[in-house]
Amino acid sequence: MSTPIASSAALPIAHGLLRILIVLNWLFAAAILVLLLFMPHEQWILRSFKLAPSPDADRLIAGLRAVAVLGVACVPVNHFILKRLLAMVASVRAGDPFVASNAQRLRAIAWALFSLQIVSLVIGCIANAVSTPAHPLHLDAGLSPTGWLAVLLTFLLAGVFAEGARMRDDLEGTV
Amino acid sequence: MAIVVKLDDLLHERRMTLTELAEKVDLSLANLSILKTGKARAIRFSTLESICKALACQPGDILKSD
């Protein structure tokens, strides 16, 4: 039997924060798309980064565009994660978190985080490939031990929720 | 081989209703109904003991293998 959890203030805050993040995620996507589609002039990019026209600068611009495309590609994945987190918060607020659907959501989130880590590695490789001593490119991407730890923990948590849901089902069926 | 609950047969033999049994064993009618219809996943020893006392029977009279 589930009872709503009314006392915790963290849950409404988490709910509101996730809703804001969902909106910000799409605004972020729109901003990158605008940059990609409406400001493609190389002169503008060269001026912004204080670069002189050169083959290295061209490679850097191509690399930045590739990173921007990957950034846009990550937006639906972020949305996928945030929507599932929102549903999980709603289930916790309803006092019913240990259900099989939450275990499935966590497993899906873990795979989404895994894919984001792969994209981060690709972005790190692109940054390394286009960066030169004259035009260094420092991006917060690449191999992230904490990111991979988060992937592992989320898979683990999905297992814990699956087991918790099974135990709760057993308990509910115990007379 | 499935375990089946013979509570219905025992109640019929004892001429007792499920509501009367629920009052005697201090268990909710809903839970007893779950047990009677074979929808329960598990039964506590304390529940089994209470039902056995109320119906003056052995656990083996309530639970049988099909």
Map the helices and strands.
The complex is a heterodimer of chains A (175) and B (66).
Chain A: H1 10-38, H2 42-48, H3 55-93, H4 100-130, H5 145-172
Chain B: E1 3-5, H1 7-14, H2 18-25, H3 29-36, H4 45-55, H5 59-62, E2 63-65
Q: Can you tell me about this structure?
A:
The complex is a heterodimer of chains A (175) and B (66). Chain A has 175 residues and is an all-alpha fold. Chain A has five helices and no strands. In chain A, α1 runs antiparallel to α3. Chain B is mainly alpha-helical and 66 residues long. The termini of chain B are close together.
Give descriptors for this structure.
heterodimer, A: 175 residues, mainly alpha, 5 helices, 77% helix, B: 66 residues, two-stranded antiparallel sheet
Uncertain segments of chain B of ≥5 residues (pLDDT<50)?
A: none
Work out the radius of gyration of chain A.
Answer: 21 Å
- What would the principal axes of the Cα set say about the shape of chain B? globular
Low-confidence stretches of chain A: none
Largest sheet of chain A: none
Please compute the radius of gyration of chain B using only Cα atoms: 11 Å
In what order do the strands lie side by side in the largest sheet of chain B?
A: 1-2
What is the structure about, briefly put?
The complex is a heterodimer of chains A (175) and B (66). With 175 residues, chain A is an all-alpha fold.
